[in-house]
Amino acid sequence: MTQKDIIHDVMLLSQKSTPATEADLQVADDLRDTLIANTNRAAGLAANMIGARKNIIAFFIGPMPMVMLNPKIIKKSDPYDTSEGCLSLEGERPTKRYKKITVEYQYLDFKKQTQDFSGFVAQVIQHEIDHCNGTLI
Fold first, then answer.
1. Among 22, 84, 104, 128, which one carries the catalytic annotation?
2. 10-132: what CATH class?
3. 20 to 30 Å CA-CA from 62: which of 33, 34, 36, 130?
4. Alpha carbon distances (Å) from 87 to 16, 22, 45, 107, 128
5. Cβ atoms within 10 A of the Cβ of 42, count?
6. Cα distance between residue 46 and residue 113, in whole Å
């Protein structure tokens, strides 16, 4: 298990990530391990939060960590305003999210998947995909 330090540099976090390839599977493992190590502090992480500018996110579905490579929201509905915190930033900030999303992504075998998410898990995925796009709350 390889836990990485969380990046707090806004300049680094504001840079757009690049597509994940098979060469980045170690980053995916490190991201999952770092999420597990921060279970009590984080619901999700993006690769740039551990210093890798790759389109990789990890988040919990219940007690299980899930990793997505190259995630992209292809459908969203039911917008709402909320406030979020971030392990890389101090405090909470207001943001707009969607209650229901459909995400196209690749799993660790690089096969394309499409899956629907709602509620808190959907909110976490949106937050982490924003990180991949260099968007901070």
1. 128
2. alpha beta
3. 130
4. 18, 27, 8, 24, 11
5. 22
6. 19
How many Å apart are CA 73 and CA 71, to the nearest integer? 7
CA-closest candidate to residue 129, choices 44, 66, 63? 44
90 annotated active-site:
no
pLDDT digits (tens, 9 = 90+) for 41-97: 999 999 999 999 999 999 999 999 999 999 999 999 999 999 999 888 888 999 999
Q: Confirm whether pTM is higher than 0.90.
A: yes
Q: Give residue 13's identity as a one-letter amino acid code.
A: L
